[in-house]
Every structure is written in C-alpha cells, then in structure tokens.
Amino acid sequence: MYKTATINIVSALKAELDKKLPMKPEDDKRLNRKLRLEFNYNSNHIEGNTLTYGQTQLLLFFDKSSGDVPVSDIEEMKAHDIALSQIEEMAKENERPLTELFIKELNKIILVKPFWKDAISQNGTPTRKRIEIGQYKTSPNSVMLRNGKMHEYASPEETPALMNELLNWYNKNMETFHPVHLAAEFHYRFVCIHPFDDGNGRVARLLMNYILLRNNYPPVIIKSEDKETYLTALQKADTGDVVSLIEYIEKQSIWSLELSIKAANGEDIDELGDIEKEIEILKKDRLTITKIFKTPKVSFEIIKHIFDDLWTPLNKVLNKFDDFFAESGNETYIDNLKLVKIKTIPSPIFNPARLLADKEVVVKKYEMFGLDLEEKKIKNISWSKKMLSLKSASKKIDYEILCSLDLNDSGYKLLITEMNTNSDSSMRNKTILFETENEYKTLFMSDAVNGIIKTVSNHIIKEIKGGE
What is the rounded distance in angstroms from the CA atom of residue 450 to the CA atom of residue 452? Predict the structure, then answer.
C-alpha cells in the first residue's frame, strides 16, 4: 500500500458518495452519459483521434457525424464505446476473473481490423508494419523519447510470461491494495509490457477503469489537454518514482468522485447536459454541405454567437484580473470606429409593430449596437479588454486583449491578440493567441471556447508574473 498525500481525500469522497447512493435514475443517467462522453473522447484524443468533443457527442448519442472526419476515426470511436460497455458489464460480474483472453478481446474490439502503420525499426530507420489485432506483438515495439533515445518495451518473447505474471500480481493484490492504487499500478505495469502492436494506451486505460468500476469507483478520465502531465508521470515511474503516477491517478479520481457527488445532489454536471442543448449542438454542427453566404441575418447571427458564446465568457474571466491593475475597461469597435456607448445585442426577433398617429413604424429586424445591419454592411467588429498600469510592476505596463471578427462574403476570420506597452518603450508588443477562418455554418463548441479561455488566461498570468 502506498502512502500518498491525497489518498485520504479519495477515500473521504468515496464515503460521501456511498451515502448518496443509489442516485435517482435521472441523475444516474446524466452521470453515465457524461462519463461515457468524457472517457471515449479523451482516451481516443490522446492517441490522435480527430473527432472534436461536439462531434463525439453527435456520434455517441445521435449516431450522426459532421464535418470532414476520417471514416477510420469514426469507426475507432464507435469501437472504443463498445469496449467501454464490455468492461462495464465485466465489472458487474464479480465472480468472473480477469483473463488474458478478455484483454486480447478488448484490443481486437478497439482496433476493429488489421492495418498498416508507419513505424521505426530497431536501428532507428522508418519502416511500415502490419498491425494484427487481438494478439500479442510478434516484433519489438518502442517509443522515441524527447531526448531522442529509443525506449524499448518488453520483447515479444517475454510478453506472454509477463502478462501471466501481471494477472497473477493482480489476483494476489486485488483484495489488499486500495482500488485506486491497484488500478494505477496495473495500468503502469501493463504499459511497461506494451503487449500489443497498437492500442496499448487505450487498453491500459480501459483495464484501469475496469478495476475501478469493479470496486464501485467511478472511472478515471485522463483529459487529452493534460496529456503531457500524464506522460511525464509515466516517465517518472520508469525512473522508479511510481508514487508520482499513483498520485496523478488519485487526482483524476477526485475529479470523477466530485462529479459523481454533484450528480447525486441533482446539481448540473455539464452545461450541455439537457436535451435542449443537445439539440442546439445538432444545429451548430449542421450536417449540410451547403455553402452559406453573408446576409444581414447571417452577419447578425455570427456576431451574436461570437459575442454571447465566446467573448462574453472570455471577458468574464478577464475581469477577474482587474485587481492587478489601476484601471480596466471594455471597448467595442465597428469598422475601426469606437462606439461611444456599448449596447447589449438584442435577441434576433421581431418587435411588435407600433402605431404613432396612425402611422406604421417599420421594425428593424437585424439591429444591434444601434445599427441596422440591412443598411450598415459591417466588415469588422472588435471587442477589447484594456488593463492599464500593472500595480506590481516597477514601470508602467498596459495590456489589451482584442477579439477581432472579420466578415467576408463566404465566411469569417476570428483573431484574438494580446498587446502590451511599457514606459521603457513606445513599441506595442503583439502576440497572437488564437486565429481561425471558418465558414458561417461553423460555430464554436464549449470545449473550443474553454480551450481559448485557458490559453488567454495562462498568457495573462505569465505576462503578469514576467512584468513584476
């Protein structure tokens, strides 16, 4: 048993969750859908699957696909979801032992069919290798480390005996180890063997969660955005520091337990959790390939989307930095002209017609910021967050986050930049934080927005620390 700093937190949260079980059926369903989505998306994304979070939602819950996505990635995601259901069923059968046959079957399920893959030979030269599914490797496998050295896994000849030893170790310790420690170390031992030609990481995470589910723990989700930390923990374990990996898995278990407790309390666990918002995803990820061109209605909707769904949540986070500066504020520019007073964008609906002196007043359908978009052909709109005079700096430093939206005939360009000036220089230093060009039918999903907010916030934190 490992003595770690966070295992007591894990155990306390598990005890709290147990007191709230069983959950209401609707809460249990919400939680299962959330964990199913998170595990399938992240475990595959770590390995290079290109489906976005929104596309994964469409595929798993509606059996629909959108965008230019490789068929192989769609098949891979579906297969991984089947493998997840297999470990969930297996975990319910406490009397059924974990076997090599079952492990091979998981590999067979997730890889779908044999294929050719680029590889590196033992002497470091590029080659191609046929990947057989559901059977142990027949040739050596390795990975190139950041320092350029090759890390060799167990040889094909050693693999059957090592897998047998792994299952014996598991059976010997399954009742004495803490479930999270047992799952984490099994994961590491499996990765050290790397028994298959491909799919080892996904199978390792599936088996880790089989062990957790068998012990009535929620599954651990390794977020794809946390891939580097995850790999670093595995590499530390290679040097003998297995505790670092154990503690890393404990922290992920804490996230899953806290999420489960929120679900049991009937709290919201996902801003995309209800049916109306799932339908909204379908609207945003429209399946049509029809080209959408700029019209007043299209301009109105895309400006409102960027303002409501991207700039507003981003600006809300940026406002939390206000205490670090002597002054801060927001500005809006339309076609490079500053608005004297910013007005909230109204909902795109008709207002009731009004009658004045028996004369009908024409209602403007697409009005925002006091402008009629049927008359004003907007080409650019920008939102700015200015943070002036960093308090902790020895010299005057100003920062500005600028979100600029360019509208052309067939699509839009979005650019988020950070600009700063200091008293030692009249030059403005400019950093591009995010840039994309999309068709008008392409909207931002919540995972993309969260990624942008994280990127911008981390940049500001780094700038503040560097400016002190």
Answer: 5
State pLDDT tens for residues 236-277.
999 999 999 999 999 999 999 999 999 999 998 864 444 444
Q: Pick from 91, 58, 51, 76: which is nearest to 207 by CA?
A: 91
Domain ranges (residues) in the chain: 7-264, 288-467
Side-chain-side CA neighbours of residue 106 (13 Å):
27
368 near 342, Cβ under 8 Å?
Answer: no
Tell me if residue 383 falls in helix, strand or coil. strand
Distances 104 to 87, 125, 159, 301 between C-alpha atoms, Å = 13, 29, 13, 50
DSSP class of residue 49 equals: -
For the entire predicted model, the pTM comes to: 0.60
List of E strands, 283-358: 325-334, 337-338, 355-356
**Terminal CA-to-CA distance of the chain, rounded, Å?**
44
Fold of 7-264: Fic-like fold (1.10.3290)
What is the model's pLDDT at position 432?
92
Residue 295 DSSP one-character state: -
What pLDDT is stored for residue 161 in this prediction? 98
Give long-range contacts, CB 8 A cutoff, 24+ apart: 170-175: 170/98, 170/211, 171/97, 171/98, 174/211
Look-up of token digits 């930095």: 321
On the question of a cis peptide bond just before residue 22, with omega within 30 degrees of 0, the verdict is yes
Interatomic CA distance for residues 277 and 75, integer angstroms: 25
CA gap 356, 121 in Å, rounded? 83
Q: Write out the DSSP string of 100-166.
A: HHHHHHHHHHHH-S-EEEEEE-TTS-EEEEEE-SSS--SS--EEE-TTSPEEE---TTTHHHHHHHH
Query: Is residue 437 helix, strand or coil?
Result: strand
